Amino acid sequence: MNNQSRAKQAWTIAKIELRRAFFSKRAFWVYALALFPSLIFFGNSLQAKFRRMSLSANGLTKPALIDSIRTGETAEAVLERVGKPASEFQWQSSRRIRDESEESGVTTHKIEPAVEARFIRLNVILPSYINDPMARIYEFEVYGDGPANLALRRAATSSTPCSAEEGPDKAFNGSVTGGSRDRWCSRAFQKFLQVDLGSEVLVKRVVIKHASAGGEREEFNTSLFNIQASKDNKTFVTIVNGTGARLVDEITSRRRISYFDGQREVRLEFTDGKLTSRQTRTLLNFEEDRKIFAGVFQFFYLRLAIFFGCLGIFMNLFRGEMLDRTLHFWFLAPARREVLLLGKYGAGLIASTVIFAGGALLCFLVLLWTHNPVEVQAYWQSNGMAHSFWYVVSAALGCVGYGSVFLAAGLLLRNPIIPAAVLLGWEAINGFLPAILQKLSVLYYLQSLCPVPAPLDQGTPAILQLLLAPAEPASRWGAILGLFAVTALVLWIARRAILRMQVTYGAET
After folding, report:
1. Mean pLDDT of 61-88
2. What is the pLDDT of residue 7?
3. Distance between CA 329 and CA 299 in Å, rounded?
4. Which of 106, 133, 137, 380 has the most CB atoms at less than 10 Å from its CB?
């Protein structure tokens, strides 16, 4: 059989296998991989268009007027000088802060009129300002006529403490500097702290040192409590209804005004009527979006989509027929096995190229559709056509290289996970390998063909930069020839494997 007849046979086999390559249920998910970037860019394009329409509804503002706005200006002055904004939003924010009129975390409660009592009891109703269920008291002091703390080191009881180290005696030891071990703490349902003064005394003042007096957050200060007094430890009279270590609400008026000049959206943030910050965002930045596309193409399309897409398509060409127990029909057909190999490879290559090269081109066109026609036309007349050509070529050659590897793997190995994991790891460490070994990687040649280098942040670690870019990219023709050489080597290995193959479905050969 001459070469022309073999080529016709291979093409006939390829046409038969195209249905399996395009519509196999085992590999149908490859379409999602190919179309995912296009959907993302399309969604972003729609969002940008709707945002432009929304901002333009109230008219455009001259760029010079927007640029004249200065920090510290009042909102009223800006509105009067610059005019009606594209959007405006006002709200208030609040935060709780300590009342500056009192010492942090310390509340003093005068007893008027003074009471005769031996037992003083603190009942905690709301233990904190943030719904924390734990009561925290660092010191509970009782005073009469003099400066002496009548409760210091007196016998004390309480509801169940949080731990043995946080018992009621810690609230009467005269110290607040020992951290969490120098406080009384309780999580009980009914929280109370009580001291026995030893005898009846005249009580005129009670001082409570709450959580922030011991160095904790102010939100942990006691929110609501009362203090009771008793002579016999049976009948208690409420002498104080307390609101805790007082926190006051600090209200801040905020206002956001946005102006739009057709290209830029400028957000002005006003605090209590004065401009404190401004953010300028270009609604559509063609240069930035082109860089984003370059990153998506290299990091997603080449490394993931085409890689796993070819895994699904080419592994299924032989391995799928083994699982379906139909491969022996091909071996009984009047066609040489290497012709069968070439035909199946051709079918997988056509399908994967159409899917992924077409997906890359579609994504590129969606990107261009979003932007100003003048910018797009200028780009297309300079580098746009060449860029689109090399993106499509890179995707197609990715299918050539990865397709051959996974076709061979389908003949040699039973489990596709093993070759996929090995190849993925090999591609990942490519930047660390010697130059001669780098050239045995499909990704090395594909990156050399990309028209725009993938963007890398300046803060990207050096090790990660090695993983994301080849050390010394090959020339374009060198990359094409090198990729074809790797593909030819892999297909030669696949040819040897199919010539030796014996179909024994029970062993899943």
Report:
1. 91
2. 81
3. 40
4. 137
Q: Is 25 inside any structural domain?
A: no
- Cα–Cα distances (Å) from 239 to 147, 194, 204, 266, in that order, read 20, 14, 10, 58
Is residue 416 helix, strand or coil? Answer: coil
Q: Would you state the pLDDT for residue 311?
A: 87
Angle of helix 385-412 relative to helix 306-324, nearest 10 degrees, comes to 30
Which residues does residue 246 pair with via DSSP β-bridges, in sequence order? Answer: none
SS3 (DSSP) at 117: strand
Give me the number of domains the chain comprises. 3
- Does residue 39 form part of some domain? no
d(CA 305, CA 286) in angstroms, rounded, equals 25
The reported pLDDT for the residue numbered 187 is: 95
Residues 118-158: tens digit of each pLDDT: 999 999 999 998 889 999 999 999 999 999 999 999 999 99
What is the residue range of 463's domain?
287-507
Residue 3 within a domain: no
Q: Are residues 211 and 355 in the same domain?
A: no
Contact assessment for residue 168 and residue 157, using Cβ atoms and an 8 Å cutoff: yes
SS (H, E, C) 286-313: HHHHHHHHHHHHHHHHHHHHHHHHHHHH
**Residues 383-392, mean pLDDT to the nearest whole number:** 92
Same domain, 241 and 346: no
CA distance 133 to 187: 6
Tell me if 41 is assigned to some domain: no
Tell me the C-alpha distance between 71 and 340, whole Å: 73
Shared domain for 459 and 331, answered yes or no, is yes
Give kind and range of the element (H or E) at residue 410.
helix 385-412
**Does the pTM exceed 0.70?**
no
At residue 242, what is the residue type? G
